[in-house]
Amino acid sequence: MAKLCIGWVASSMEGKGQDGHSVEGNGEMEIDQIETFLAVSTFGGFHRAADALRLTQPAVSARIKALEESLGAKLFTRSRSGLTLSDAGKTLQPFAEQLLKTASLARQAVHEQRGSRGPLQIASALSISVYFLPDVLQRFQHAYPKVQIEIRSGHSKAVLDMVLGGEAEIGLARSLQHPEVETFSLRDDPLLLVVDAKHRPLRWRHALLNQVATWPLIFYERGSSDWTLTSGLFRRAGLVPNVVYEVDSIETAKRMVERGLGLAFLPQLAMLREIRSARLTVVKIVDAEPLGRSLDVIHPRRRPLGREARAFLQVMRQTASRMASAGSTAKTGSTST
Q: Which tens digits make up the pLDDT trace of 66-93?
């Protein structure tokens, strides 16, 4: 394993041994130990950090113990409220984040010196592949016609697995955080309650949640994050929604709404054209919390982005900005997410 000499950190965190004497670390620590320290800090416990890092809990404990021994200081304290950073841990945290960033930049420099290999691999949630990536690819191909791209789709967990497993350099998902990946938010993508503009009266444009619960609703992709958010909205209010249809995709739900078969909570990104053309109307729920989500890009902390991937990220940001401007009217008067 690669090791980093950090005597400058260890000297600032001298601790006391069990006999009360000063303890100094050996000034060396491993990158894996730093990554594990940040995971435990993020998740607030060894068990959850182990799950996130795909390690056993004893392995996580061993890494933290080795790191504490190298620094000569305890990094965590236990209390009734759980596991928290000690003073030494709080001192280490910003340095640890910087160390991982520096290591990533070093790998990036070496990677670019070797040059690009093969097509740019992208993993994406299915709805993002359908409603966002085509515009990105059109702009990217115009600017970088020689770059080959391969896209694989799946649910957010599958996207995360592909990125962590090295099957994709970049992942696109919604509101996804993990200690082993860097996350960049491109734009908000709220879930909006929409109704067919032709078949419903104007009074449907504003409603209370208990009214909405009685209306015919169309849910989609049972078990998905969208389904969970929508179901949770009613559950927290003690309401049972009148679900008349459950379908397997956003597009199916949207087409059924257009035909007057019910209302549905759909991603704003999926409805920009329909809302601008007044085929669908947003219903504002005046007493409900927003269903907030973001469209995120993820990539591994320890595998830096190559030239093509960074260019692709820049085009995605530009595209997301344009689409956000186009969707600003759709967001007005909505149950935003």
A: 998 888 899 999 877 778 899 999 999 8
Element (H or E) spanning 112, and its range? helix 87-114
Question: 323 and 237, same structural domain?
Answer: no
Residue 128 confidence class, pLDDT cut points 50, 70, 90: very high
Which residues, in sequence order, are CB contacts of 18 under 8 Å at separation 6+?
Answer: none
Q: Which residues contact 146 (CB under 8 A, 6 or more apart)?
A: none
**13: Cβ contacts below 8 Å, ≥ 6 apart:** 25, 71, 72, 73, 88, 91, 92
* Chain length of the chain: 337
Does one domain contain both 93 and 19? yes
Residue 296 pairs in a beta bridge with 173, 185
| Residue 337 confidence (pLDDT) above 70 | no
With vertex at residue 293, the alpha carbon angle to CA 288 and CA 295, rounded to the nearest 5 degrees, is: 155
- For residue 108, count other CB atoms closer than 10 A to its CB: 16
Phi-psi region of 64 (alpha: psi -120 to 50; beta: other; left: phi over 0): alpha
Q: Which tens digit of pLDDT belongs to each residue from 222-259?
A: 877 788 899 999 999 999 999 999 998 899 999 999 99
User: Where does 250-291 show beta strands of DSSP type E?
Assistant: 264-267, 280-282, 284-285
Read off the amino acid at residue 100: L
Give yes or no: residues 75 and 219 share one domain. Answer: no
Read off the pTM: 0.63
Distance CA(116)–CA(120), nearest Å, equals 9
Which of 30, 293, 54, 14 shows the shortest CA–CA distance to 175? 293
**DSSP state, 334?**
S
Residues 156 and 301 in one domain: yes
